[in-house]
Amino acid sequence: MRTVVTLTSLLLLAGTAQAHIAMTKPVPRSLDQKAGPCGSTTSVRGSNVTTYAPGETITVEWDETVDHPGHYRVAFDDDGVDAFANPNNPNDNFPSTLVEPIADKVGGHYTQEVTLPMTPCTNCTLQLMQVMTTTVPYNSFYYQCADIVITGEGSGSGSGSGSGDADEVEGGCSTGSGSGGVLLLLGLAALIGPLRGRSSRSRHGG
């Protein structure tokens, strides 16, 4: 009985050690998270691919299942994962970084808005990293990646759908009441007025 309890405890501890963070949005490449840059030394791009527009602002979401002193980082590589580097100290900054540091809470659910680059890409990767800050240089990290594609016109380049000018033409005919139409009506009224007066005088013998 004691052996069974011990084995069960070891399995639970092993599961806890592997699950410190759990990305929920975008869909992660895998549940692995201990080996960089994407959780496993054998990590490769998979079939869970999320598509976004150039320049789109998205919300990255994850859960912290085991609390650690530290912070989080969200980074982006437009072609694979070779741009991701581990920070050594609080002053490190890399071109691939979108947001850092993201303050640690005592476990729970996290959300972080990030703005994607404007350049389209078909092999791009979003990385979530948990950085342990108990020692400097940093030497302990957890990682998860999401495979994404950036394509389309972008969130800020949509074409307008306004109704256009008031004198917009449909099928060769004016649909508005522009100044040209008003002047034409006034001119007709000026011509018809005297004609009506002459007709009335002739009927009354004037």
Name the descriptors.
disordered N terminus; five-stranded mixed sheet; disordered C terminus; Immunoglobulin-like; 20% helix; three-stranded antiparallel sheet; 206 residues; alpha+beta
In short:
The protein is of the alpha+beta class. Helices cover 20% and strands 32% of the residues. It has a domain at 20-150: Immunoglobulin-like, CATH 2.60.40.
Model description:
There is one protein chain. With 206 residues, the chain is α+β, with helices and mostly antiparallel strands. It has a domain at 20-150: Immunoglobulin-like, CATH 2.60.40. 20% of the residues lie in helices and 32% in strands. It has helices at 2-18, 179-203; strands spanning 21-25, 49-52, 57-64, 70-77, 97-103, 108-115, 121-132, 141-150, 169-170, 173-174. The strands form 3 sheets. Strands 2-8-7-4-5 form a 5-stranded mixed beta sheet, with no helix packed on it. A 3-stranded antiparallel beta sheet has the order 1-3-6, with no helix packed on it. Strand 9 and strand 10 form a beta hairpin. The relative contact order is 0.18.
Show the helix and strand layout.
Blueprint (H helix, E strand, L loop, with lengths): L1 H17 L2 E5 L23 E4 L4 E8 L5 E8 L19 E7 L4 E8 L5 E12 L8 E10 L18 E2 L2 E2 L4 H25 L3
